[in-house]
Write a structure and sequence with these properties.
The chain is mainly α. The chain folds into two domains: about 400 residues, Up-down Bundle (Growth Hormone, Chain: A), CATH 1.20.1250; about 55 residues. It is built from 20 helices and two strands. It has a two-stranded antiparallel sheet with strand order 1-2. α2 packs antiparallel against α9. The chain starts with 17 loop residues before the first helix and ends in a 6-residue tail after the last strand.
Length: about 525
């Protein structure tokens, strides 16, 4: 058991006991569980959601809207947490996350769902930017922190263990709306522990606080225009509007860099990017986000739409991936402190992801189920070896002054990678699927039913599929054979999209070489300003 936490204060003279620290960490563990459950159940339910709300063209936006708003808000609240203490923002973000979950469950159209997910992303950005930066506040010693982070990894693992299966079960037997309401009881439990036991720690003490709103606006404009460019480019080609949009995105990022270099209190301190270790870790976080979200959101489509599995079966097959993320994290915490060069764990993690992605792009309808499960386990273990280390390495490198913003920036970059991953893979899947259908069913060109077959909803929505087969039967055609041809086209399309995840994994494996050797430090007796309302004592 870890010793009492040295978080003393000149104002209160207060030292947190092991029990108090444990209860505060339970609140953070429930936060981690809520975010993990949301990601896993939504990914599993997404093919069914899109089929019912009739909006496959917005498939990627269900994930991208969440990621985009998260990316924008993470650095803002990471910096605000440094200034004002993280507790108020953590509590507010949990409340907002629960409200947005209710709105997602009540959505009656894909556009409403995308907007509700964007609001949920704001709350998620607040959570990521503040909640996970509370851990080094509580445990300055990196060895102690690694031990306590096992609690978060365990919570993440529990959520991942039942999340996909629960999402598949609820989607199949109760309805997809129920998957969003799962967040409510978890959120209420986290609120209880956070409000009562999480101390309010301020890392930065300045007389005049000024938030860089101009930088925040430029980040929003730059990432938003980049997202639209990636989404629209394949459909509109090199048109004048696309050229102008691309130029606008580049211009905004150039202005952002110019402004942040001259801002007295920048949202994104440029010294972080001049630090070779941090810059390399940010790149690895980008690659990791690309791989993670590409797998989470498009493997369910492959299994349900391409292989004809039920939502519950999809949940069971995805479970090994997310469970092994936790197993990898726990194993990593045990091994890494024994290594003379902790960077070796990053090599191992990305090597496992390369092997997993090779397997994912080769699976087909007749692949043995145990082999699919093995690929899922390799991907999960690889991500488990990488994600916690990127965070701890960045915190070790950044120092106390940049602790909050560097932790937030690492998560932001991972979200950007996820945003690009879902957009790029989604664009490739849509393009190759439509092209594949047109090539394999040439006799359908010019007919009214080919349009139905070109929409992947026909593969996951039983009502649309039944109507399609009935229409072809009236014309004396075998609709089932065309459905099978469409499934083959979707499998090939998803494989093409996942090739980009394999490419990212290969690049990341070689990029680890750019990370200087990390050495863990032992910190004892660090003084911090801790303020907590007397009502919470």
């Amino acid at each position: 058991m870890a010793p009492p936490i040295a978080t003393s204060s000149a104002e209160t003279g207060r030292i947190l006991s092991v029990r108090h620290s444990l209860l505060a960490m339970l609140g953070l563990a429930f936060v981690s569980m809520m975010v993990a459950v949301d990601q896993t159940v939504v990914g599993t339910a997404l093919p069914t959601i899109v089929a019912e709300l009739n909006g496959f063209e917005l498939y990627a936006w269900v994930a991208s809207s969440y990621l985009l708003t998260s990316v924008i808000t993470i650095p803002i609240f990471g910096r605000l947490g440094d200034y004002y203490g993280r507790k108020p923002f953590v509590v507010a973000s949990v409340i907002l996350f629960m409200l947005a979950s209710v709105l997602c469950g009540a959505a009656n159209s894909m556009l409403q769902l995308v907007l509700a997910r964007a609001l949920q992303g704001i709350a998620g950005g607040m959570l990521v930017g503040t909640a996970f930066a509370c851990i080094p506040d509580l445990f300055p010693d990196s060895h102690v922190r690694l031990r306590w982070q096992v609690l978060l990894s365990s919570a993440f693992g529990i959520a991942n263990a039942f999340g996909p299966t629960l999402g598949g079960f609820l989607t199949q037997y109760i309805g997809w709306r129920s998957v969003f309401f799962v967040n409510l009881p978890i959120g209420l439990m986290s609120l209880f522990f956070l409000w009562r036991y999480l101390p309010r720690i301020r890392q930065v003490q300045v007389s005049h606080i000024r938030l860089d709103w101009q930088g925040a606006l430029l980040v929003a404009l730059g990432l938003g225009s980049l997202q639209f460019f990636v989404e629209l480019m394949p459909r509109q080609g090199a048109s004048l509007s696309m050229v102008l949009l691309g130029c606008f995105a580049v211009l905004v990022f150039a202005v952002l860099i110019f402004w942040e270099k001259r801002c007295p209190q920048p949202l994104l301190p440029m010294e972080m990017f001049r630090n070779k270790s941090l810059a390399a870790l940010f790149c690895l976080s980008l690659f990791t986000g690309f791989i993670l979200f590409a797998l989470l959101f498009y493997l369910p489509l492959l299994l349900q739409g391409g292989f004809g599995r039920t939502p519950q079966q999809v949940g069971l097959l995805i479970t090994p991936l997310v469970v092994c993320i936790t197993l990898g994290s726990v194993t990593n915490a045990r091994i890494i402190i024994l290594l003379s060069k902790p960077n070796y764990m990053l090599y191992a993690g990305f090597a496992l992801q390369v092997l997993a992605c090779i397997g994912m792009v080769t699976v087909h309808q007749n692949t043995p189920q145990w082999l699919v499960v093995l690929y899922m386990m390799l991907a999960g273990m690889g991500l488990g070896f990488v994600m916690p280390n990127l965070t701890v390495f960045a915190q070790e490198t950044a120092g106390r002054a940049l602790l909050g913003i560097s932790t937030a920036m690492l998560q932001s970059v991972r979200m950007i990678g996820g945003m690009l991953g879902t957009a790029v893979v989604g664009t490739l899947v849509t393009h190759y699927y439509v092209d594949g259908v047109r090539q394999t069913v040439p006799q359908g060109q010019g007919t009214s039913w080919i349009g139905l077959l070109e929409d992947p909803q026909v593969l996951v929505n039983q009502a649309i599929q039944s109507d399609f087969m009935a229409r072809l039967m009236r014309q004396g055609l075998n609709g089932e054979s065309y459905i099978e041809l469409a499934r083959m086209s979707l499998v090939a399309a998803v494989h093409s999209g996942l090739m980009t995840a394999l490419l990212m994994a290969l690049i990341a494996l070689f990029w680890v070489y750019r990370v200087p050797v990390i050495r863990f430090t032992r910190t004892v007796g660090v003084k911090q300003t801790v303020t907590q309302a007397s009502s919470n004592e």
